Amino acid sequence: MAETLVVTGIGILMAVGLVGIIIPLLPGLAVVEGAALLYAFYRGFSFTTWVMLGLITVLFILSLAAKLLLPKRDAQRGGASPRALLLGFVLGVVGFFVIPIIGAIIGAVLGVFLIEFGRHQAWGPAWSATKGIILGFGKSMLLDLAVGLAMVTLWGFWVVFL
Q1: Average of pLDDT values for 80-87?
Q2: Structural domain containing residue 9
Q3: What is the pTM of this model?
């Protein structure tokens, strides 16, 4: 009975994490990772627990790295200068604290657009660089969802078979 309650509670937390990826009001993958960690504490830290938690954590870390790299790479492909990327990063950090979670995206996009518009004095090149960073954020969101589903699938395998 207790096992069922724990597994159900962890499953609900993971589902909330997946929703958080799609509707960025909370850090979705971090919630999934935290739920896996709670399950590890419940199961006890055996070799199997370390392996499964390690696999889930590696996916989480790789996704965090991709979340930083994809928007940068696509913005550069769109013509964004290093200065625009720096201001985008700074405004993204500020935006995160002004409007939690979603403010990071708004700030980064705004920063790239403002610098590129100031640099070119034209909408076309500024919008091209801005589209690049938006595309990168979109790709990172899809990647987060795929990684989140993989993390939940690993946890499900852990619960059922191990």
Answers
A1: 92
A2: 2-161
A3: 0.85
